[in-house]
Amino acid sequence: MKVLAQTELNDVSGGLILLSALTSSYGASMGQAIGSIVDVSYKVAGKNTNFALAGATLGSGIGAAVGLSPVKAIAGIGQGVNLIIDNARILKA
Length: 93
Hints:
The chain is an all-alpha fold. It has one domain (15-92). Helices cover 81% and strands 0% of the residues. It is built from 4 helices and no strands. It has helices spanning 6-13, 17-44, 51-66, 70-92. It is elongated. It starts with 5 loop residues before the first helix and ends with a helix.
């Protein structure tokens, strides 16, 4: 079975390559900025979290959804949510 390249995957899943790339990177930047603020807040409290990565991943997935790339959107949103849950577990410990 052939492994699809990212452009082929976007073509098959209905994504618009340029639009998806723009919205995905914009969403990742916004998510990382918000996550970094959260990380700094918890660092002051003595907790070491990585909400910046979680926010970037989730934001990238949301941006991909806006860019009409459903496969990339589902993957990004799913990974972002998992990273948020991992960070929540760190905070509970």
